[in-house]
UniProtKB/TrEMBL annotation:
<keyword id="KW-0560">Oxidoreductase</keyword>
<keyword id="KW-0408">Iron</keyword>
<dbReference type="InterPro" id="IPR003819">
    <property type="entry name" value="TauD/TfdA-like"/>
</dbReference>
<dbReference type="InterPro" id="IPR042098">
    <property type="entry name" value="TauD-like_sf"/>
</dbReference>
<dbReference type="Pfam" id="PF02668">
    <property type="entry name" value="TauD"/>
</dbReference>
<dbReference type="GO" id="GO:0051213">
    <property type="term" value="F:dioxygenase activity"/>
</dbReference>
<dbReference type="InterPro" id="IPR050411">
    <property type="entry name" value="AlphaKG_dependent_hydroxylases"/>
</dbReference>
<keyword id="KW-0223">Dioxygenase</keyword>
<feature type="domain" description="TauD/TfdA-like">
    <location>
        <begin position="18"/>
        <end position="271"/>
    </location>
</feature>
<protein>
    <submittedName>
        <fullName>TauD/TfdA family dioxygenase</fullName>
    </submittedName>
</protein>
Length: 286
């Protein structure tokens, strides 16, 4: 992080830039609570920087407190389990989300009726130094701006058909790789990164099909797109500290997870905030 205090000049907030994107807000004094920071200030920071980290603040004691706070941001995505997903490694996971494996790049809500604008993550317990488990975020408008037009044209020719069945849904979504941001209309990437079929350590592979180009050109699209998404100029891998709160722009970013040491005490809570108005999933087929 580099010093960059321009964005909230005159305010009491201590904001620094995260590289290659994002803004970090530090607690102004011990005992300051996340709730004390105006939501509209944070919303503006997320819209500008795509990701905001609040660190050093007093945080929410439990899922109900977190959910109540997130309602100040907007309408929440409601799941069979409620509004708060407890991301903890399970002993015999039925799906990779509850494993310690890596999580490929994707956008949240891709298989649901509505696509949330914001994700709010609270780190209840960090996995610990050296244990991995960073949440990875890729800034897709930056990717598109920094990629040569011929390559973007290849990406734009491709449509993904995604089928995933897990505990909470069994859905098919069809989406072009390059789509318009539902708010400002700039181009963003909507992509669920394929995982090698022979990776038997990856629990519950989704069924991903891509069309629009011949197979050899599709292979090159996956290669060039993956390289761009994971380029350090566009990728922020967040190393969790207990108590962190991260708010991310799900319309612009893709995200995933680095693998972590099995048995490490990684515990995140995640809430999804819908846009205003909520965005009906343009790609959902069923
Ligand atoms: Fe996700």
């Amino acid at each position: 992080m580099t010093d960059d205090h321009d964005h909230l000049a005159g305010s009491r907030l201590d904001v620094t830039r995260i590289e290659p994107f994002g803004a970090a807000v530090r607690a102004p004094e011990p005992g300051a609570h996340v709730r004390d920071v105006p939501v509209e200030t944070l919303r503006a920071l997320v819209r500008e920087h795509r990701l905001v980290l609040l660190r050093g603040f007093d945080n929410f004691a439990g899922p109900q407190e977190l959910s109540a706070y997130c309602e100040r941001w907007g309408e929440l995505s409601v799941w069979p389990f409620g509004t708060v997903l407890e991301l903890v490694e399970q002993e015999r996971p039925a799906d990779h989300i509850f494993d310690h494996s890596y999580m490929p790049m994707h956008w949240d809500g891709m298989y649901r009726e509505q696509v949330p604008e914001f994700q709010v993550f609270q780190c209840v317990r960090a996995p610990g130094a050296g244990n991995g488990g960073e949440t990875t975020f890729s800034h897709t408008t930056a990717v598109l701006e920094h990629t040569d037009p011929a390559t973007v044209a290849q990406w734009s020719a491709v449509t993904g058909t995604y089928h995933r069945a897990m505990e909470f849904y069994d859905s098919v979504t069809v989406s072009p790789l390059v789509a318009a941001h539902p708010g400002h209309g700039a181009q963003v990437i909507r992509y669920n990164e394929p995982t090698a079929a022979e990776d038997s350590g990856f629990v519950n592979h989704p069924d991903l099909q891509f069309s629009g180009l011949p197979d050899d050109a599709l292979a090159e699209v996956h290669r060039s797109l993956r390289a761009a998404l994971y380029d350090p100029a566009h990728l922020y891998a967040h190393t969790w500290q207990t108590g962190d709160l991260v708010i991310a722009d799900n319309y612009t970013l893709l995200h995933g997870r680095n693998a972590f040491t099995s048995g490490a005490p990684r515990h995140l809570r995640r809430v999804q905030v819908l846009g205003t108005p909520p965005l009906d999933n343009p790609g959902l087929v069923r």
